[in-house]
Design a protein that fits this description.
- The chain has 5 helices and no strands.
- With about 180 residues, the protein is an all-alpha fold.
- Helix 3 packs across helix 5.
- The longest helix is centred in the last third of the chain and has 57 residues.
- The two termini are about 40 Å apart.
Length: about 180
C-alpha cells in the first residue's frame, strides 16, 4: 500500500513539473468549492478559495490552455486512470467491506440467540441477572464497534466519491480545452 502511494505521489509530481499544476492542491480547492471545507494541514490562500464552479474552471483553463494538445491527452488519460481507481475503491467498500461487517454482526447475533435459548438451564436469579448483564454489555460493546466501523466505511466511501467527482469534473474541463484546440 505504501509503495502504491509513493508511485501516485511520483506521478502527481511528474504532472506538477510538466504542467505546473499541483493535483493535490487542486483537489483541496475543489473540496473547498464543493463543501466549503479546508483540510486542516492545508489552508488555501484567499485567491484559491473559489465560490463558484465557473471561477474554478477558469482557473484550470488558464493553467492548461498553454499546454500542447498531446500533453493534454496524456494528462486526460492519467485523470481517467485515477477516476477508475476511485471507482474500484467504491466497489471494494460496497461489495466487500459492508458484507464482512454484516457477516460479523450475524455471527455474534447467532451466538446471542444460542445463549438466549439456554435460559431454561439457568439455576437461580443470580445466573439470570448475570446472563442479562453479559448480554447487555455485549450489545453495548457491539453497537460501539459497529458505529466505529460504519463511520470508518462512510468516511472512506465519501473520500473515494469526492476524488471520483473531482477527476470527472477535471476531465470535463480538459475535454473542453482539447475540443477548442482541435
Amino acid at each position: 500500500m505504501e509503495k502504491n502511494m509513493k508511485r501516485v505521489q511520483e506521478k502527481e509530481k511528474y504532472w506538477e513539473e510538466r504542467l505546473n499544476i499541483n493535483i493535490r492542491e487542486e483537489f483541496y480547492i475543489y473540496l473547498y468549492l464543493c463543501e466549503g471545507v479546508t483540510v486542516k494541514k492545508k489552508m488555501l490562500p484567499m485567491e484559491k478559495q473559489f465560490q463558484t464552479y465557473k471561477n474554478w474552471k477558469e482557473h484550470i483553463i488558464n493553467i492548461l490552455e498553454k499546454v500542447p494538445l498531446d500533453e493534454q491527452e496524456e494528462f486526460w488519460r492519467y485523470l481517467n486512470y485515477r477516476k477508475r481507481v476511485m471507482a474500484s475503491n467504491h466497489a471494494i467498500i460496497d461489495n466487500f467491506l459492508y458484507p464482512v461487517v454484516v457477516g460479523f454482526l450475524s455471527a455474534y447475533l447467532l451466538e446471542f440467540v444460542v445463549k438466549a435459548g439456554k435460559w431454561s438451564e439457568l439455576n437461580g436469579i443470580a445466573d439470570v441477572i448475570g446472563n442479562i448483564c453479559g448480554i447487555l454489555l455485549f450489545i453495548f460493546l457491539l453497537s460501539i464497534f459497529l458505529r466505529y466501523i460504519m463511520n470508518l466505511l462512510r468516511s472512506e466511501w465519501n473520500k473515494a466519491n469526492q476524488e471520483k467527482c473531482f477527476y470527472e469534473d477535471f476531465m470535463e474541463i480538459v475535454d473542453g480545452i482539447r475540443k477548442r484546440k482541435s
